[in-house]
Each structure stands twice: as structure tokens, then as C-alpha cells.
């Protein structure tokens, strides 16, 4: 269960809402994994979640990057490089031809991808723009 907490807030409502959306997708995936033990074919659901996750990832990262560019945030290169790595990772998960026969492993890999994103990106890298953007009046 992925639970969003106030300590995850970057104090920018659009971004907090987008991050909460990520937690929702993560919870759907976690439920899907639990269901898999009962119903051994979750292929359609897995494909659907992965597709949404890819689209959401691209949308959210573009949103953040535009906000950083438009406000003259200096450390954008490092931040964007991490975004690009996450996009490549989720695309490789989504378009992996073995998803059908490796549904459980695909879900576990996606969940570890999401944990990595939350703990290493949202809580560390995203937090670095918080005071800068808040200081520019972005809340
Ligand atoms: Fe973010
Ligand atoms: Fe980010």
C-alpha cells in the first residue's frame, strides 16, 4: 500500500496532485498483484496500468520541466536526466514482449520502479526545487 503523506508535499498544489495520482496508480498495481494470486491472468489489467503509467510519467515530467524552465531553475539538467531514465525504464517495462508469460515479475519490477521513483526522486530530487519555486510564488 502506497500512502501519500504531508511530508511528501512540494507545496505546489498541481504537482502534489500529480504525485498523488502516481500513488493511485501504484496502489492499483499492488491490488492487481494481489489479485494475480487468485486470478492467474491479469494481462489486460497489467497492460492497461502500464499504458497509463507511461502516459502519466511523460505528462508529469513535462509539466515539472516546463515549470523549472519557465522559472529559471538552475539544476534542471540533472533533474531532467533522472526523468529521462525513468521514462526509458517504464517504456521498456510496457513494451516488454514477455509480459504475458511473466505477468507477476513485470508487476514486481514496475512496483520496484515506483518505489525507486518515490523514495529517490520525489523525496530527494523534486524536493530540491521546492523552496526555489515556492520562493518564485509557485505554490
Ligand atoms: Fe515529480
Ligand atoms: Fe521530477
Automatic annotation (TrEMBL):
It holds the Pfam family Hemerythrin. The lineage of its organism: Bacteria, Bacillati, Bacillota, Clostridia, Eubacteriales. This is Hemerythrin. The keyword Hydrolase does not apply. PANTHER family: BACTERIOHEMERYTHRIN. InterPro entries: Haemerythrin_Fe_BS, Hemerythrin, Hemerythrin-like, Hemerythrin-like_sf, Hemerythrin_metal-bd. PROSITE patterns: HEMERYTHRINS. Residues 12-131 form the Hemerythrin-like domain. The keyword Transmembrane helix does not apply.
Amino acid at each position: 500500500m502506497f500512502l501519500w503523506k504531508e511530508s511528501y508535499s512540494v507545496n505546489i498544489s498541481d504537482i502534489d496532485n500529480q504525485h498523488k495520482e502516481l500513488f493511485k496508480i501504484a496502489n492499483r498495481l499492488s491490488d492487481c498483484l494481489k489479485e494475480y494470486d487468485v486470478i492467474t491472468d491479469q494481462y489486460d489489467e497489467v497492460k492497461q496500468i502500464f499504458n497509463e503509467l507511461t502516459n502519466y510519467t511523460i505528462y508529469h515530467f513535462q509539466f515539472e520541466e516546463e515549470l523549472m524552465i519557465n522559472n529559471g531553475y538552475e539544476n534542471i539538467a540533472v533533474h531532467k536526466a533522472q526523468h529521462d531514465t525513468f521514462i526509458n525504464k517504464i517504456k521498456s517495462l510496457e513494451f516488454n514482449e514477455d509480459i504475458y508469460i511473466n505477468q507477476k515479475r513485470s508487476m514486481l519490477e514496475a512496483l520496484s520502479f515506483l518505489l525507486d521513483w518515490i523514495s529517490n526522486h520525489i523525496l530527494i530530487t523534486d524536493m530540491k526545487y521546492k523552496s526555489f519555486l515556492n520562493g518564485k510564488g509557485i505554490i
